[in-house]
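Data deposition worksheet. Section B asks for the primary sequence of the deposited chain exactly as it was used as input, without tags or linkers unless they were present during the calculation. Section C holds the resulting structure in token form. Section D is free text for depositor observations; keep each observation to a single sentence. Incomplete worksheets are returned to the depositor.
Section A, Depositor: J.P.
Section B:
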Amino acid sequence: MTLDYGEPDSHGVPTVLTPRLVLRGWQAGDVADYLEIVTGPGMADHTPQPKTDAAAWSQTAFQIGHWALRGFGMWAVEDRATGQLLGRAGLYEALGWPGCEVAWTIRRERWGEGLATEAGRAAVEFAFDVVKRDGLISIMTADNTGSIHVATKLGLTFDRAETIQGGEYSIYTISRAVWETSADGRPA
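Section C:
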């Protein structure tokens, strides 16, 4: 997929258009919708999620700040046809994190539509083509079969188990070389 870029937002966050999604910078109006998404059934089974308005606000502010400090981060993911906020996807590398992570969280009622894969593929392409990273990781619990499926569709493979912030996680990786030599230059 070759990314289509729209205008950056007021914070300099690039907008990325995929066939079904708009990946864009976070806005204050996203906080309530994002909290509704992440407090839904099963959404905190594998990844800690904010549980209050204040926590969702803090996480949104963190996402905006991550872009300012790193030059990349997590986008708000919006349905291109309806404008509905679907979740988040992008890159994450907080201080002390084991690498530049590609990650995604999509509204549960939209699971199974390939939206996480579409958003994740855009984030991987952005990481290699724009940010110029040599490798990426994705971190998930060993029983998170949905995210493992997305990671493998993106070309990431299991690398190791690791304890991170007191929890046991599986680390999946992909290198720039693997990404560039995949079918049509990108994993299918």
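Section D:
The first helix runs from residue 30 to 38.
The chain has one domain: 4-185.
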